[in-house]
Amino acid sequence: MAAAWLRAVFLAAVAASAAEALGLDVHHRYSATVREWAGHRAPPRGTPGYYAALAGHDGLRRRSLASAAGGGEVAFADGNDTYRLNDFGFLHYAVVALGTPNVTFLVALDTGSDLFWVPCDCIKCAPLVSPTYGNLKFDVYSPQKSSTSRKVPCSSNLCDGQSACQSASNSCPYNIEYLSDNTSSSGVLVEDLLYLITEYGQPKVVTASITFGCGQVQTGSFLGSAAPNGLLGLGMDSKSVPSLLASQGVAANSFSMCFGEDGHGRINFGDTGSSDQQETPLNIYKQNPYYNISITGAMVGSKSINAKFSAIVDSGTSFTALSDPMYTEITSSFNSQVQDKPTQLDSSLPFEFCYTISPKGSINPPNISLIAKGGSLFPVNNPIITITDTASNPLGYCLAMTKSEGVNLIGENFMSGLKIVFDRERKVLGWKNFDCYSVDNSSNLPVSPNTSAVPPKPSMGPSSYTPEATKGASPNGTQVNVLQPSESSSLKLHFNTNIFIATALMFSAIL
C-alpha cells in the first residue's frame, strides 16, 4: 500500500516539475500527502499540539547548532518531493535513486553536514521496517548489486580517511561523528549514478556520478528514527551533493529553496537567482560551515530597531529563534503596536506573545522586516501563526518567535513566501517574494549531455487519492499548470521490488 501512495506522489512530482522549471516539491511533515503516505496520526494543523510538536523539534535542533557554533537547475529524478515526517528526527526528507538498477532511499536533508550516505552492506543499521516509519519499508544499497558502482580509493582527493589506509588502492574509509550524542555513520566511500531531472523544452533525465558513503555501521539516533534510510548533506564542503554536481558541470554551485504558506514548497539545484532579488554576503566560517548572514537591524511596524548580530538561515528550524537583545526589542515593539488583547492560549505553546482574534475575525499585526548587511530588506511575510481547536475554530494568534540562548536561527516561518537562493559560487544569500507554485526562468546553466527522455507515467496507482502537487490552486489562488511527462523513455525507477516510473526530486526545508 505504501508503494502505491509513493507512486502517486512521485507521478504528481514529475508533472509539477515538467511544468514548473524543475520545481522540487517540499511537503510539511504534517501535510495531507505525508499523512496518507506514511500513515501518521499527526495533530491537526493549527492546534496547540501541532505547534508544540514543531517547537519541540526546534529545541533539539537549536541545541545541536549551538554546540557547534564557536548547467541548468536539476532535481533528483525520483519523486520530486521533499517530506517532513512526524516520527523522524530531521525536519525534511527526500527520495533519491542510486545505482543500476536503481534503488530508492528516503534520506534526511541536512544543511549542517556534507557527506551523503545510505545504509549499505549493513553490519549495524536501523531496521528496514518499524512502527515509527508508518507504512514505509526501506531498502539498502549494495555495491555488488549495481553494475555502475565503483570503489573510491584512498588516493582520491575526496578521501579524508587516508591515515587509516594501508595502501592508496584500498577503499577509502569514512567515519563521521554528528552533534547528537554518540551518533555516527561509518563505512567506505563509493561512486555510483544519481538520477536527476532537468528541462529544456522536454524534461530530461540526467545521471551524475556521485561519491557517497556506503554506511555499514550507524550508532546513536541513526539506529532509531533520526535518519533510518540515509542522510544527504547540503553543506559547503567539496563532498556535499551541490558541490559534486557543480564539479561535474551538472549544475551551478547554488541551490534555492521556497516555502509556501501552506508548508508546500520547492528546492532547485543550480538556481543562481535573478537580477531582481535582494542579497547579502554569506559569512564563511570554516569551523562552523552553516549558511550564516549578518543582520544590522529590523523594522517592526512604524518603528526601526538598530542591532547587529549574525544568524543561521536554517530550513530545518520551524520557528525563528533570536537571542537578546534582538528578541526582546522585536517582540516588545510588536507587542506595543498590536491592537488585539493579549491572551494565554495553551501552556504547551512556546510563544510568549499571543492575542485574541477580534469579533470580526480580522488579524492585522504590524509588519516585520529584517535589515541585512548591505541594507537589503528581508521581508517577513508570515510572522504569526493562528491557533485553532481540533474543529479548526480560531482561538487566537501568536508571534511565532522564541527566545534563544547564544545562537540565532532564521527559521522556515520567516522564509515563507520567499525564494531563498544559497549561491555558494558568489558566497551570497539571495531572496525575493515568490509564489512557490510558479515558474522562474531567470536562471540558466549548462547541464551535462548525459540525458535521456523522461520516463512514462506508471500504469498503476491509487484511484481515490489526489496528491497535493496535482491540485489546481496554490494558497494564493494561482493556478498550477500540470504537464504530463513524456511517453517515450526506457528508464525505469524502482521502489523496493515494485517498479514505478517517476522523475524529479529533492531537499529539508530544510532546512
Automatic annotation (TrEMBL):
<comment type="similarity">
    <text>Belongs to the peptidase A1 family.</text>
</comment>
<dbReference type="Pfam" id="PF14543">
    <property type="entry name" value="TAXi_N"/>
</dbReference>
<dbReference type="Pfam" id="PF14541">
    <property type="entry name" value="TAXi_C"/>
</dbReference>
<feature type="compositionally biased region" description="Polar residues">
    <location>
        <begin position="461"/>
        <end position="476"/>
    </location>
</feature>
<feature type="region of interest" description="Disordered">
    <location>
        <begin position="446"/>
        <end position="476"/>
    </location>
</feature>
<keyword id="KW-0645">Protease</keyword>
<keyword id="KW-0378">Hydrolase</keyword>
<keyword id="KW-0064">Aspartyl protease</keyword>
<keyword id="KW-0325">Glycoprotein</keyword>
<feature type="signal peptide">
    <location>
        <begin position="1"/>
        <end position="21"/>
    </location>
</feature>
<protein>
    <recommendedName>
        <fullName>Peptidase A1 domain-containing protein</fullName>
    </recommendedName>
</protein>
<dbReference type="GO" id="GO:0006508">
    <property type="term" value="P:proteolysis"/>
</dbReference>
<dbReference type="InterPro" id="IPR033121">
    <property type="entry name" value="PEPTIDASE_A1"/>
</dbReference>
<dbReference type="InterPro" id="IPR021109">
    <property type="entry name" value="Peptidase_aspartic_dom_sf"/>
</dbReference>
<dbReference type="InterPro" id="IPR032799">
    <property type="entry name" value="TAXi_C"/>
</dbReference>
<feature type="domain" description="Peptidase A1">
    <location>
        <begin position="92"/>
        <end position="432"/>
    </location>
</feature>
<dbReference type="InterPro" id="IPR032861">
    <property type="entry name" value="TAXi_N"/>
</dbReference>
<feature type="active site">
    <location>
        <position position="314"/>
    </location>
</feature>
<feature type="active site">
    <location>
        <position position="110"/>
    </location>
</feature>
<dbReference type="InterPro" id="IPR001461">
    <property type="entry name" value="Aspartic_peptidase_A1"/>
</dbReference>
<keyword id="KW-0732">Signal</keyword>
<keyword id="KW-0472">Membrane</keyword>
<dbReference type="GO" id="GO:0004190">
    <property type="term" value="F:aspartic-type endopeptidase activity"/>
</dbReference>
<keyword id="KW-1003">Cell membrane</keyword>
<dbReference type="InterPro" id="IPR001969">
    <property type="entry name" value="Aspartic_peptidase_AS"/>
</dbReference>
<keyword id="KW-0449">Lipoprotein</keyword>
<dbReference type="GO" id="GO:0005886">
    <property type="term" value="C:plasma membrane"/>
</dbReference>
